[in-house]
Amino acid sequence: MSSGMLYGGDEIGALVFDPGHHSLRVGYAQEDTPKAEIPSVIGVAPEQIKLEPEAKADDSNVSSTPSSWKHYIDTIYLHKPRPNMELHSYMKDGMIENWDYFEKMMDYSYSKIIQSESHFHPVLFSESPWNQRQKREKLTEIMFEKYKVPAFYLVKNAALAAFANGRATALVIDSGATHTSAVPVLDGYVISNAVVKSPLGGDYLVLRAREMLESLGIDLTPSVLIANKEVIRDKDKPRYTKKTFPFEITNSWMTYMTKKTVQDFQQSVLQVSESPYDERVAASIPMVHHEFPTGYHQDFGPERFKLAEGLFDHAMLGAGYIAATSAGMCDVDIRPALYSSVVLTGGNSLVQGFSDRLSKDLSSRTPGSMRLKMIAANGTVERRFGAWVGGSILASIGTFQQMWMSMQEYQECGKAQIDRKCP
What we know:
Elements: H1 3-7, E1 15-19, E2 23-28, E3 36-39, E4 41-46, H2 53-57, E5 69-72, H3 75-78, E6 86-89, E7 91-92, E8 95-96, H4 99-114, E9 123-127, H5 133-146, E10 151-156, H6 157-164, E11 170-175, E12 180-186, E13 189-190, E14 196-198, H7 202-215, E15 226-229, E16 240-242, H8 251-269, H9 279-283, E17 288-291, E18 297-300, H10 303-308, H11 319-328, H12 335-339, E19 342-345, H13 354-365, E20 374-376, H14 380-384, H15 386-395, E21 405-406, H16 407-413, H17 417-421
Parallel strand pairs: 1-9, 9-10, 11-19, 19-20
Antiparallel strand pairs: 1-2, 2-3, 4-5, 4-6, 7-8, 10-21, 11-12, 12-13, 12-14, 15-16, 17-18
Helix pairs in contact: 6-15, 7-8, 11-13
């Protein structure tokens, strides 16, 4: 491949991949939203065709020959119950953990989403600020060896989120599915020793909401399992018919679908109060109505604030606390620049009232001499896909084109080169 094709920048569409615990965002650079958002779980089920049952009967670990497993990826395939289908995530602690599942996801992305050969497109990947060296090298190796990409680049997702909001220096507060992190970015580079993260994110809210709904005796059967339902009055017991399947539904599938039902509840009902939770204040705010897939519906009042409060009321894990701690770990000279551009990103930051509360919490912890400015994109797309949008911008800038690690460099210097090219 001629290097002209690669460094011309405009001739060929670079791809941007932004992996997260909730989903993988995939699309072309220069576009303003990802082409697809694919859930980060893969359904794995044994193939239906069993040729020699007696051979497999004695082997308690189902034979691991690849042909005997079928993988189900993306919403349409995942949401349908199948016999013995277990759901697995390939992510752990913000990093790629299971490379086999991850490759299945990449195969799917190229064949079904991009619908083009991988060797035509340079690829930009986002990564978490604490990604490990061997994982970066492994990803580089897979992209060049298996997918034969012409060029590759890795960028910390916080730096990308800052770019998406027009900043090269920012304090990025990223609240996603599994954790919320505060990451200082200076001139496009993450100050890694000042990254602070807390395990409170969307999944934590879902867990608490689920506990509350179950304690109220609310049936969380997912809509996929409901054949039909009747219209009922407020708080009446739901009357619905459940679909029957000729096989046992796996626990991991059931847990995933129930989580989806609770997520709907969380996204439409929960709200963060502007100041620390106060039962009296919360009770004076109008209630919100929610209907569950079973047809059951009721109003929710103070509890919607009480649940969301969990993201802020922990002394050491609250979003305001980790933001202030992170800024405090940075050099005194750059703190004013960080406080004056606090960028909020991540799907969990879309919980109603999140940005107002964070702004209030932070201002109470900000030294009086500092000017605090919160930057929170209004659109849900910009906030959910912040890192992806930043990657799309970066990969399409002319001056970035000489920064790619090319296939030629990889062949000459090997995968260790990635640490030098992409600090």
